[in-house]
């Protein structure tokens, strides 16, 4: 799909294009199988780097925070109480309570981290809601900014194979580092 085709679909919605650009990352927070990377790249190519990044960033932050708040409100339900009794969940909650927000911040900076799972576990921890909002604002800005920068001009991917190779290398490195950090923070051997 070329930039002109993407722009055509957003122009078709008229001023609703901005709403769609916001809603796609927002909905991804609730349905984590949706591709946040694709939504950010589409936004950046349709609305420009700054506006596309802003729409995707606001959408994903507000969606993630709403998921966090919903899980936090449901902590006393039977299902959540059973979930909290699992050894692995208790270990993660204890880890987050001991280590604070730095591991969460680092994990959320990577686009391949399952943010819905992070939202669930953090909602069960003792981290204050306003502190988690600050973590979301900063970590998602880094994540969305990186994706937006990589996919800023999608048409050059077809004309400049070196840029495509560079982007693939950066994505693989980010994925590899994210997995290593996730394993380290979420499955620490000292736990």
UniProtKB/TrEMBL annotation:
Keywords: Cell membrane, Membrane, Transmembrane, Transmembrane helix. Residues 35-148 form the VTT domain. Its main location: membrane. GO terms for cellular component: plasma membrane. It comes from the Bacteria. InterPro entries: TMEM64 (IPR015414), VTT_dom (IPR032816). It is a multi-pass membrane protein. It holds the Pfam family VTT_dom. It is found in: Cell membrane. The chain crosses the membrane at residues 12-41, 47-71, 101-124, 130-150, 162-178. PANTHER family: GOLGI APPARATUS MEMBRANE PROTEIN TVP38-RELATED, UNDECAPRENYL PHOSPHATE TRANSPORTER SAOUHSC_00901-RELATED. This is TVP38/TMEM64 family membrane protein. The gene is ydjZ.
């Amino acid at each position: 799909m070329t930039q002109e085709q993407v722009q055509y679909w957003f122009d078709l919605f008229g001023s609703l294009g901005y709403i769609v650009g916001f809603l796609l990352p927002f909905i991804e927070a609730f349905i984590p199988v949706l591709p946040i990377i694709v939504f950010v790249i589409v936004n950046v190519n349709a609305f420009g780097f700054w506006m596309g990044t802003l729409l995707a960033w606001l959408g994903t932050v507000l969606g993630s925070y709403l998921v966090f708040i919903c899980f936090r409100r449901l902590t006393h339900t039977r299902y959540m109480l059973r979930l909290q009794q699992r050894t692995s969940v208790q270990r993660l909650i204890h880890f987050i309570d001991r280590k604070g927000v730095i591991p969460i911040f680092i994990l959320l900076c990577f686009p391949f981290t399952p943010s819905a799972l992070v939202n669930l576990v953090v909602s069960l921890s003792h981290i204050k809601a306003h502190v988690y909002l600050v973590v979301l604002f900063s970590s998602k800005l880094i994540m969305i900014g990186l994706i937006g920068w990589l996919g800023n001009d999608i048409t050059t991917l077809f004309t400049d194979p070196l840029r495509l190779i560079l982007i693939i290398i950066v994505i693989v490195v980010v994925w590899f580092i994210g997995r290593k950090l996730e394993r380290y923070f979420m499955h620490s051997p000292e736990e």
